[in-house]
Amino acid sequence: MNTPGSIVPADAKAVKQAARLLREGGVVAFPTETVYGLGADAFNPRAAARVFEIKNRPHFDPLIVHVSGRKQLRLLCEEPGPEAEKLMDLFWPGPLTLVLPKKESVPDIVTSGLPTVAVRMPAHDTALELIRKAKTPLAAPSANPFSYLSPTTAPHVAAQLGARVDLILDGGPCSVGVESTILDVSGGELVLLRSGGISVEEIEKALGRKVSLRAPDPDKVTAPGQLERHYSPRTPLRLVKRHEHAEPGPSAGLLCLRPPGKAPPFAHTEILSVSGDLREAAANLFQCLHRLDAAGLSVIYAEEVPDEGLGRAIMDRLRRAAKTAGGMNGTGSLRDK
Questions:
Q1: CB neighbour list of residue 176: distance below 8 Å, 6 or more residues apart
Q2: Domain check: are 271 and 190 in the same one?
Q3: Residue 94, C-beta contacts closer than 8 angstroms, at least 6 positions apart
Q4: Which of 59, 66, 93, 214 lies 20 to 30 Å from 335, alpha-carbon distance?
Q5: Which pLDDT tens digits describe the chain residue by residue (337 residues)?
């Protein structure tokens, strides 16, 4: 028997053990293609409450529920509608969360009392097998303390949550590396609630109509990841237009999309993608930030990336990460010195 907080390879035996723990009201960390999730039985309010407690997550911030297929989806929501069905056909399993009208059987603690529920089907064999074996949808936010950097490896989970988690399934690094896109399809308008692993452009092309990009109301949280400050390292992070606008020094770190032409005198530099590929950059984002945060720096400078496609998701995370004390100036970024 493994002790709480143990990291175990996600083989058939470990998945079976994790599923049993979930059926008994336990909380298990597991891999998905986006980030590691902190899972509990979505129909067990006490188990869901443990997730909030472990993460120190405010109860007004709803949880995403993960399903293994359309059959489980029917347990959670009313009729999805033709556009939601089309998006599921195209992007499930995958990093797209749909906000749909919920059934009364879904506990209010999972949806923070909202009339909707956020649902997705992860594109990860271990996650899908775990959900099937648990025989229930899993309410699963990212497996990290609330507002801190999301975990993309099992050691990230262990370092941040430790023995508070009953078991950590190790499925290796996450392939997408940023959280799912959240799209509200519960009304007549399509509303982007969070940028993520599926770009707005892909969704608009699939449906043949525009998605509303209006900024979320911080006083009315309708989906995870909408709070102004989120995804934050403990080290202050500042956004810069280009790395030349940063202030290098013996305790300053730099996060760049591509390698800088001339190596600047920073204490620690992380490159998201040698070729500048935004998909690779997204997959590496949180791992790079974790390494910078562990380097004993006084400040991290993050160079902006193109705010389009997956770059929109990266910039969303960086802007929220910069909402720490001293992290941003009045304009929201350090574009000029």
A1: 33, 34, 95, 197, 282, 283
A2: no
A3: 33, 120, 121, 122, 123, 197, 198
A4: 214
A5: 689 999 999 999 999 999 999 999 999 999 999 999 999 999 999 999 999 999 999 988 899 999 999 999 999 998 899 999 999 999 999 999 999 999 999 999 999 999 999 999 999 999 999 999 999 999 999 999 998 999 999 999 999 999 999 999 999 999 999 999 999 999 888 999 999 999 999 999 999 999 998 665 655 666 666 565 668 899 999 999 998 899 999 999 999 999 987 767 899 999 999 999 999 999 999 999 999 999 999 999 999 999 999 999 999 999 999 985 344 333 333 333 2
Strands (E), the chain: 7-9, 28-30, 37-41, 64-66, 96-101, 116-120, 138-139, 167-170, 181-184, 191-194, 237-240, 252-256, 268-271, 299-303
Do 35 and 150 have their domain in common?
yes
Q: How many structural domains compose the chain?
A: 2
Question: Domain holding 56: CATH number?
Answer: 3.90.870.10
| Overall size of the chain counted in residues | 337
C-alpha to C-alpha distance for 233 and 150, rounded to whole angstroms: 9
User: Considering the entire predicted model, what is its pTM?
Assistant: 0.90
Query: What is the rounded distance in angstroms from the CA atom of residue 138 to the CA atom of residue 128?
Result: 10
User: Is 222 among the domain residues?
Assistant: no
Structural domain harbouring 280: 237-321
Give yes or no: residues 280 and 188 share one domain: no
- Backbone φ and ψ for 245, nearest 5 degrees, come out as -85, -5
